[in-house]
Amino acid sequence: MCAGCNEKIMAKRPRIAVVGSANVDLTTFADQFPKPGETIFGRKFDLGFGGKGANQAVAARLCGADVFMVARVGDDLFGPSTIKNFQELGIDATHVRQVAGVSSGVAPIFVDPSGQNRIIVVKGANDELKPAGVEAAAEMLKRADCIVLQFEIPLETVYYTIKFARKHGIRCILNPAPAQPMDVKAITDLDYFVPNESEAEAISGMPVRNLDDAKRCAGKLLASGIGRVIITLGANGSLLAGSEGMQHVPAFSMKSVDSTGAGDAFIGSFATFLGEGLPEQEAVMRANLYAGLSTTGVGTQKSFYDRTRFDAEWGARTKS
What we know:
35% of the residues lie in helices and 22% in strands. By secondary structure, the chain is α/β, with parallel strands linked by helices. The model is unreliable at 1-11 (pLDDT under 50).
């Protein structure tokens, strides 16, 4: 999977644990979004595996990491298929458990011709991933170099896992998606807080319409006690912010087809690149490219590049 890696990257294969959601994505492509009460014909339909946690796990795995998933799925037809998908991709699904009497998480996604999307997530079994489930996976989690979290599981589980990571000296990355009210004091032990523009705006209460807005928002988040913030800005790249200052990391030019899952591609690849020992700025730059490439294909996990394809693109776009 890492045939295109250079010696520096090959020196370390990170172990990444994702504690998070697993959904099935139901994606509809249409020329426009329907008005209230209106029925329209769509152009195409696609069914695929998704959920922010699962997407981030797949991105990390395709980038070359050893990946372990902690999740809950339903006892419907989607549950066993989700577990099988993890296994076929080489992701350790020992702690992906079915919950009786509950549906798997699903995400109906609607995409317009520009590639913009609107998503409704029904969490289902994802709500059954409690702190006890994290504790049951403790021995596996202790062996991880990094733990990745999102907001599609109960907040109490997110807070518990952050404390667990800090107690055991494990790097922890939180993607606060979808955005919701949270206890900032419960997440200050994080290593990285990584929202996109809309999530940063919802959490901070400040508009994020451009880079200057993002800088002001990042400053407020840092002032609240969060150590390091990365605000992903889509086609405008990313803003990396910490106590030493802020740095804009530009995006790469892409012909976007479907932006669904781009944020997850960024998180999973960033965790991998950082875990390989790359400098922080380069890890963000590479994650920008990986996320951008994901928008050139349809769907979420199916649009993610494997490491060989990514390394070829990186080499072509960064050679002097």
